[in-house]
TrEMBL record:
A divalent metal cation 1 binds at E75, D181. Gene3D superfamilies: Metal-dependent hydrolases. One of its GO terms (molecular function) is metal ion binding. SUPFAM superfamilies: Metallo-dependent hydrolases. One of its GO terms (cellular component) is cytosol. Keywords: Hydrolase, Metal-binding. InterPro entries: Metal_Hydrolase, TatD-like. This is TatD DNase family protein.
Length: 223
């Protein structure tokens, strides 16, 4: 089987022969779907942090994170664009960090105008921290690379004015994923743009991203 395109974060998976999509589910929705039998990531989104007490969130995580079909914890994180206080969001986010550490699974992070806050919370850990939908500028990227974050790049890169385009040139290929999130953009367009900015053939980029998937998530897809 040829190496597929990898979409590391999508909310609307559509089966295609040359594409593997890692679907992101809200943890409360995952819990209501006991027949699910394919790999996903799941967590309490910061938009929903106010819906659960810390005890409720902890118990829901404990009930579910050991499920073998949950291969990553999240998306979870911090978001300054919503009304829920950062204190409440951070408390729920911290529970995910502890759960990911305990179970040994990567954590998928939603971060909106909270780069410094998320960086502050990242301690010495062997758990990969993946910043999904990353849009940071060159200076932000340089700071985050010092703590070995992994960057998942989406359709924002296709905007020729995006400061993110400068960041692509300094992100090591082993710290990179590509995603579509909640858009209907063809993942191949993003691959093409990343390959162009890195001056490499798209097929080589596919191999690298597939290798990153195996390294961080294990053998969840064959090629």
């Amino acid at each position: 089987m040829p190496v597929p395109y990898i979409d590391i974060h999508t909310h609307d998976a559509v089966e295609q022969e040359d594409l593997f999509q890692l679907q992101s589910l809200f943890l409360q929705d995952f819990e209501q779907n006991p027949s699910l039998n394919y790999p996903v990531t799941a967590g309490i989104h910061p938009w929903h942090a106010h819906l659960f007490t810390p005890d409720e969130a902890r118990e829901m995580l404990e009930r579910n994170i050991g499920n073998p079909y949950i291969v990553g914890i999240g998306e979870t994180g911090l978001d300054r664009s919503i009304h829920t206080s950062l204190a409440i969001q951070e408390e729920i986010f911290q529970l995910h960090i502890e759960a990911a550490e305990k179970i040994g699974k990567p954590i998928i992070i939603h971060c909106v105008r909270c780069w410094q806050d998320v960086s502050r919370l990242k301690k010495d850990t062997s758990i990969p921290w993946i910043l999904h939908g990353y849009t940071g500028n060159l200076q932000t990227t340089q700071q985050l690379l010092k703590k070995n974050f992994i960057f998942s790049i989406g359709s924002h890169l296709l905007d020729r004015r995006a400061k993110l385009r400068e960041s692509i040139e300094i992100i090591p290929i082993e710290n990179l994923f590509i995603e579509t999130d909640d858009t209907n953009v063809d993942i191949r367009e993003i691959y093409h743009e990343v390959a162009l900015l890195n001056n490499m053939p798209p097929e080589d980029l596919k191999m690298h991203i597939f290798g990153n998937l195996k390294k961080i998530f294990g053998p969840i897809v064959r090629a």
